[in-house]
Amino acid sequence: LFSGAAPTGRSSRFRLLPVYSILRRKQEKTEEICPRMDAPQRTGKSKVVLLTQSAEKTGEKRRNLGRKGLANKGGFRYTDMKYRPFCDRRSGRKRQNMKMLEDRIRKDGIVREGNVLKVDSFINHQMDIPLFREMAKEWKRLFAGKPINKVLTIEASGIGIAAVVASEFNVPVVFAKKSMSINLDYDNYETKIQSFTHKKIYNVIVSKKFLTPEDHVLIIDDFLANGCALMGLLELTEKAGAAVEGIGIAVEKGFQQGGELIRSKGIQLESLAIVDAMDSATGEITFRDQPQQS
After folding, report:
1. Are 77 and 111 in contact (CB under 8 A)?
2. pLDDT at 238 over 60
3. How distant, in Å, are the alpha carbons of 229, 244, 290 from that of 265?
4. pLDDT at position 193, please?
């Protein structure tokens, strides 16, 4: 097969290229941007390329999915990402935002006696919003396909992260209040939660107007230790008849019972960093190796 006939009267310098040669050149050009599934990953310095889900799975418009539409016929999306210096593959990508968060905790986190990990310089006092945006993008990928229409958290440390996550999902965020105030209605869902950090019990409240049976909720919080806060939020959603589509946690203390307790309920729990051990004497932090995601 040939790509076309030579124009009449033209010189012989016009060569006829087989169709398969043209297709091969297009394939090679595509592979320069991102290698085949069986090719090794490449590392870049500033501009990088990320291969993610197909347009059909992400639901994004075709014109938003590529560099000049190159290779978009295969349903691939290429994106420049600040924090991902590699070319990803469909099969089994490791959570790079998890690695980024781990590195930040090692750099700026402070370990204190009593299994206390201080991350107040970038998570729960001073907040690093660019970091939060990358975490939100990772949760968006991990919970892709879920019909999430609301983000739920508890005051106060989870509000900053939850707000950025809600922006990424383009849905409202609701935070459970730890005290009654004059601007709250009296028609509320309530439960009691014991705080690991403050060592006290709170009466946690969410208005029935903002948590309904029509809601498909993604719960977001900064820390998971004993799981008391999450169990309280799960109780509130159960009272409201809302569906919990998943839980996203920034930092999980894997040596405490909370993670195992939540996973035993069959809920999709995605912790971006899981701490398996901390040493207050040396400041050393050991993170759990998490399996790659399909």
Report:
1. no
2. yes
3. 15, 11, 20
4. 87
What whole-number distance in Å separates Cα of residue 129 and Cα of residue 111? 23
**Three-state DSSP state, 215:** coil
Distance CA(286)–CA(291), nearest Å, equals: 16
Q: What are 59-90's pLDDT values in tens digits?
A: 444 444 443 333 333 333 333 333 333 333 33
Rounded (5°) CA angle 97-101-103? 115
Joined tokens for residue 58: 């992400």
Given this model, what pLDDT does residue 73 score?
36
Q: What does the alpha-carbon distance between residue 227 and residue 154 come to, in Å, rounded to a whole number? A: 13
Length of the chain as a residue count? 294
DSSP 19-85: HHHHHHHHHHHHHHHS--TTSPP---SSS--EE---HHHH---GGGSSSTTTTGGGT--EE--TT--
46-62 per-position pLDDT tens digit: 333 333 333 344 444 44
Residue whose entry in the numeric block shows the structure tokens 């935002």: 97
Q: For 220, list phi and psi in degrees, rounded to 5.
A: -125, 135
DSSP single-letter state for residue 93:
B
Other beta carbons less than 10 A from residue 97's beta carbon = 22
